Amino acid sequence: MDERAITAILQRSVGWVTSVRLLALYLRQRPNVRSWDEALGGSEQFVIDYLASAVFENLPETLRRFLLRTSILDRVSGPLGDHLMDGMTPAGSVLLQQLEADGIFTSMLDEDGVWYRYHPLFRRTLTRILMAEVAPQEIAGLYERAATWHESQGWYEEAIGLLVSGKQVAAAAAVAGRHRHELLDRQDYHRLEHWLTLFPADAVLGEIELLFIKAYVDQVQFRIHDLTMILQQIDTLLSVIPVELPQIGEWRGEVASLRALITSFRSDGSQTLTLGLYALEHIRPGSVIARAMALLHTAYGYHMSGELQPAYELLDASANTTLIARDIAVLRSRTLRLYVDLVAGDLMAMRNAFPRIIDLAKSASLATTAAWAHYFYASACYLQNDLAAAEQHFAAVVGLELSAHSLCYVHSAIGLALTHQAQGRPDVASRAIVSAREYALRMQNRDLSEIVDAAVAELEVRQGY
C-alpha cells in the first residue's frame, strides 16, 4: 500500500476505525480490484450500505426524520434543527445530545454543545437516503429554510452556499442583493468579491445583483475596461425587466453613478454631470457608498464644467442628511471635498481637514476612506514641499495595500517614489516605482499598468535617463 492510498483512507475514515475494517472486508470479498482508486470508490458504497442497514434503519422514526432533514448541513445546532423540522419533533438540541451520547456518528464542535457535525461517511449515507426517499421540491424547501435561518443570523455566506447547493441560484443572488449595500457601506470589498466565488462561474452574468457586486469590486480595483463591460451587461438585462419592478429605478441610478466614473476618467465633464445628477435622483439617500460615488462624480462634473461653487454646495449639503449616521454623513462630505480641493488647488483646506477625517474613518473602521485621507494629505504636503510629511503619509497608504482603493494605492506608491526623488534618494525612488509596477502586475490590471508606465517614464526623465 503506497502513501497516497494510506492518506486517502485516513481522509475518508476521519478517525472511524470500523470504516477501515469494512474496507479490508470489501477487499477480501473482491480480490480482483485493479487499483486503489477503484477499491476506495467501491468500498465507500459498501460502507454506506452498511451504515444505512446497520445504523440508520435501526433508529427511532423521530431520529431518522431529524437526521435526514439536517443532512444537508455542514454543521447543525438545536435551533437550526428546530427550524428545519418546523415543530415536528422534540427540541433539536435534545436530539443532537442523544445522538452524540449514543455514538451515532455525531460530534460536538464546541464546549457549550451548541454546534454538531455528522461523520462525513454517515452524512453521505443520509444524503443518499434523502435523495432516494424525499421529493425534490421538499428537499429544495429544506435548503431554502436553512438559508433563511442563516440569513436571519447574519451568516450570509452560509445562506448563499446552501441555496447554491440546492440549485437555487436566483434565490442565492437575491440574498447577496439584499445585503450588498451593507457590506459596501462597510467597505468590505474583499467579502463582496468572495461572494462571487460562491456561485457557478456562469451565474454572475445572468444575475443583476451579482453584476452590481462585480461592478463595485471592479471600481475599487480600478478596472475601467472590465467595469465598462459589466455595465453593458447590466444594461442588457435591464432592457428586458418589467419597468414597474420597484428597484429598477435605483438600479439605473447605480449604473449611472458607476458609468460616471468612466466618463470622469475620460474628462467628459458634461456627461459626468448628467450621469451624476441622474444617479442622485434615483439612488436612495440611505445608501452611503453608492450615493457617495454619485455625489463625487456630480461634483467632478460641475468642476469640469467650470462650476466649482455648485460642487462645494452639493458636498456641504450632503453632510446635513438625517438618513444616515451623523458622523458618517460628515465623514463622507469632508472626504469628497478633498477630491475637489485637490483639483482646485486648495492645499491648506486639504491639510486642515485631515485630522477630523482620519479620526472619523478610524472610528468607523473604514480603511479605504482612511487610505484616501492619507493620500490627499500626502499630496498636499508634497505640493507644498513638506517632503517628510509626504513620505510618511504616502507610505501609510502603501502599508494599507489590502484595504486601499487600487488607484489610491498606485498613486501613493508613485507619490512616494517622486517624494524620494525630490529628497535626493533616486535608488529608493526606483524601488518605490517598482513596487507600484509589481502591484499592477499582481492585479493583472492594464488600466493601472498604463498609469504606472507613465509614472516610470516621468521618473526616468527626472533621473536623467
Task: Give the tags.
465 residues; mainly alpha; 24 helices; 3 strands
Overview of the molecule:
The protein is elongated, with a radius of gyration of 29 Å. Strand 2 (106-108) and strand 3 (115-118) form a beta hairpin. It has helices at residues 3-13, 17-29, 36-54, 61-70, 78-85, 92-101, 120-133, 136-152, 156-165, 169-185, 189-197, 208-220, 224-238, 248-265, 269-282, 288-304, 308-318, 326-344, 347-363, 367-383, 387-398, 406-422, 426-443, 446-462, and strands spanning 76-77, 106-108, 115-118. The chain starts with a helix and ends with a helix. Helix 20 runs antiparallel to helix 21 (387-398). The protein is an all-alpha fold and 465 residues long. The protein has 4 domains: 3-54; 135-221; 242-344; 364-465, Serine Threonine Protein Phosphatase 5, Tetratricopeptide repeat, CATH 1.25.40. The longest helix is centred in the N-terminal third of the chain and has 19 residues, at 36-54. A 3-stranded antiparallel β-sheet has the order 1-3-2.
Tell me, what's the shape?
Answer: elongated
What is the distance, rounded to the nearest whole angstrom, between the alpha carbons of the first and last residues? Answer: 64 Å
> Which radius of gyration do the C-alpha atoms yield?
29 Å
Number of domains: 4
Number of strands: 3
Q: What number is the mean pLDDT?
A: 89
